[in-house]
């Protein structure tokens, strides 16, 4: 917990330092200058620099969390594998962030005052889309999945879902043992992407009825509509956050503190 909270506090401190002092503006200016100095270069290079700096800051805290988990026998992955996961996470973050930042600054160039109106709607739609696509695009970056072989357990899990009126696409096994000894299962996605996923550690260590118990709990989240409710709340929260950002970005003292001239300025 101290390592996890420390990482959050360090990230917040870095955000405040770069956002409320000229340091962040200088970083964006220098990074953009390396790639020609255009507005687009400033947006993309600046965003990349911010992501890299934030990721580098989080590395020692992530290593601390891993060390504690290893002390309790929860880690099976070596440091090289942990580092590769960090690289995968960084690459995934850049793939998601850079197009969004480019689109955001295209809207601020279109209208420095009203950009947040379409941006708020886009943020809500993207949140819902990522909830749907997460099992297909993001989960496979970190784990390999294989269909659970036909048999009594798979039949029982599908029967649990049918009894709750939950339509699932498949029952999959995740190779969680590459990283951990922890036992878990979950239901991810919704609609056409919904599937039951069981850790291979759970299937190895638990009795079939215990596996059913864990999966029944996860199906309960679906039965009570926790995923769509969470998605709707996330979409509304994203839209509200962008609207608040739109108000803050028009506040001259905040722009002056950040070293930016307007919301359309890449240094913002």
What does this structure look like?
The protein is mainly alpha-helical. The chain has two domains: 1-113, no CATH class; 115-249, Zincin-like. The chain is built from eleven helices and four strands; from the N terminus they run H-H-H-H-H-H-E-H-E-E-E-H-H-H-H. The protein has helices spanning 2-19, 22-34, 39-71, 79-110, 116-137, 139-142, 152-163, 200-205, 208-223, 226-249, 252-258, and strands at 145-147, 171-174, 185-188, 195-199. It has a four-stranded mixed β-sheet. A hairpin with a 6-residue loop joins strand 3 and strand 4. Helix 2 crosses helix 3 and helix 5 runs antiparallel to helix 10 (226-249). It is globular and about 65 Å long.
Short description:
The protein has 268 residues and is mainly alpha-helical.
At CATH's second level, what is the architecture of the largest domain?
Answer: 2-Layer Sandwich
Strand numbers in spatial order across the main sheet: 1-2-4-3
Strand content: 5-15%
Radius of gyration: 22 Å
Q: How far do the termini sit from each other? A: 33 Å
Uncertain residue ranges: none
Structural category is: mainly alpha
């Amino acid at each position: 917990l101290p390592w996890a909270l420390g990482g959050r506090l360090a990230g917040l401190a870095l955000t405040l330092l770069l956002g409320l002092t000229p340091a962040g503006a200088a970083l964006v200016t220098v990074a953009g200058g390396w790639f020609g100095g255009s507005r687009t270069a400033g947006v993309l290079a600046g965003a990349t620099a911010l992501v890299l700096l934030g990721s580098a800051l989080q590395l020692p805290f992530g290593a601390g969390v891993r060390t504690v988990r290893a002390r309790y026998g929860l880690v099976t992955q070596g440091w090289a594998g942990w580092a590769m996961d960090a690289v995968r996470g960084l690459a995934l973050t850049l793939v998601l962030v850079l197009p969004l930042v480019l689109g955001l600054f295209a809207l601020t160039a279109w209208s420095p005052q009203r950009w947040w109106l379409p941006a708020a709607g886009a943020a809500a739609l993207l949140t819902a889309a990522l909830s749907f696509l997460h099992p297909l695009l993001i989960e496979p970056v970190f784990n390999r999945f294989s269909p659970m072989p036909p048999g009594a357990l798979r039949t029982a899990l599908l029967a649990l879902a049918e009894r709750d009126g939950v339509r699932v696409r498949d029952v999959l096994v995740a190779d969680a043992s590459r990283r951990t000894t922890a036992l878990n299962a979950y239901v991810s996605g919704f609609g056409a992407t919904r599937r039951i996923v069981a850790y291979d550690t759970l299937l190895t260590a638990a009795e079939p009825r215990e596996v059913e118990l864990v999966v029944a709990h996860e199906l309960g989240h679906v039965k009570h509509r926790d995923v769509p409710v969470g998605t709707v709340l996330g979409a509304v929260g994203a839209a509200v956050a962008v609207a608040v950002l739109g108000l803050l970005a028009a506040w001259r003292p905040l722009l002056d503190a950040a070293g930016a001239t307007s919301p359309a300025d890449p240094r913002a």
